TrEMBL record:
This is non-specific serine/threonine protein kinase. Residues 65-196 form the Protein kinase domain. Gene3D superfamilies: Phosphorylase Kinase, domain 1 (3.30.200.20), Transferase(Phosphotransferase) domain 1 (1.10.510.10). It comes from the Eukaryota. It is found in: Cell membrane. It comes from Nicotiana benthamiana. It holds the Pfam family PK_Tyr_Ser-Thr. ATP binds at K103. One of its GO terms (cellular component) is plasma membrane. Keywords: ATP-binding, Cell membrane, Kinase, Membrane, Nucleotide-binding, Transferase. GO terms for molecular function: ATP binding; protein serine/threonine kinase activity; protein tyrosine kinase activity.
């Protein structure tokens, strides 16, 4: 992940253009291109402040992954709406407690365990008001799930591009506010503080 970003920085950076001192750009941007020490799965899972959920807890929280609980679908798999108790993080009745979004890995999809673990590794250590919060995960038998805070207004993409009649178009003033807040989140991700 970090290497791809640093390669793109090398190619697009104004520091690279016309540099005649012979030094590699990567030595000047060492914080962004330093290879990360590979960590084992156990090291990653133990180093985060994430909650570990059982598959049964998430099954109950999402009402058995019912089709009417589906929020969306992507390359990783389906995302389901669920509820957990905000103090104990145990499953709660629908409509009570903390609303969550549960990403369930599609075992026949292109993404797999490695991508699931990468999300935990990176998103599990980040905290910023402009980034969706990863609350926990489930690693049980063949099941791989991620538990996120629920974003009640739905997909930004749907609001920007009005994917259905349900979504009203955003005013240009609101679009500018969204762009500014997204830029703050991106700036954080690219800062040395985030270590992504």
């Amino acid at each position: 992940m970090g290497s791809c970003i640093s390669v793109r920085i090398k190619a697009e950076s104004p520091l690279h253009a016309g540099a005649s001192d012979g030094r590699d750009l990567s030595s000047r941007l060492s914080y962004s291109s330093a290879p990360l020490t590979p960590r084992s799965q156990n090291e990653i899972l133990e180093s985060t402040n994430l909650n570990s959920f059982s598959f049964n807890e998430l099954r109950v929280a999402t009402r058995n992954f019912r089709p009417d609980s589906v929020l969306g679908e992507g390359g990783f798999g389906c995302v389901f709406k669920g509820w957990i108790d905000e103090h104990t993080f145990k499953s709660a009745r629908p409509g009570t407690g903390l609303v969550i979004a549960v990403k369930r890995l599609n075992q026949e999809g292109f993404q797999g365990h490695k991508e699931w673990l990468a999300e935990i590794n990176y998103l599990g250590s980040l905290s910023h008001p402009n980034l969706v919060k990863l609350i926990g995960y489930c690693l049980e038998d063949e099941h791989r799930l991620l538990v996120y805070e629920f974003m009640p207004r739905g997909s930004l993409e749907n609001h920007l591009f009005r994917r259905s009649t349900y979504f009203q178009p955003l005013s240009w003033n609101l679009r500018m506010k969204v762009a500014l807040e997204a830029a703050k989140g991106l700036a954080y991700l690219h800062s040395p503080e985030a270590k992504v």
